[in-house]
What does this fold into?
Amino acid sequence: MELFKNAGLALAAASLSCAPAVVQQVQETPEPEPVYVQELAPENFNAVVLENELPVIVDFYTAGCRPCRELAPVFDEACREFYGKVKCASFNAYLDDYATAESYGIDGYPTLIPFCRGSGGEEIHVLKDLKFSLDEMRARLEELIENCVTQSIS
It folds into this structure.
């Protein structure tokens, strides 16, 4: 009887060793892509914009606004390029809160407002120039960075 028990164990061991090797594939989870433009709401506006150490530029827009939709890809691309140097955010005034937009004197969309350590800067009204180019957006972001550096030195 003992022989059969040992034979059974040997048989089981043999079947395991003959089984095809199971290769455990470890799939690497890709790093999530950074958020280049953060969507704002009244609840997070202060934390993201006014309490940020980085210069911030906020695109105030409404969903039904054609010039706003035309500006969005230019804004997104510039924000990708300046990621880590400037915090980019967008605020849908129609959905979220016209009062927040109005508190900054905004009466037309799209409007970009740069912020440096909580202080709102001069508005950039995009309505005047519907062909707001990527080069112009880059220049505005460079200007924002420079102004914030100058403010922190003085």
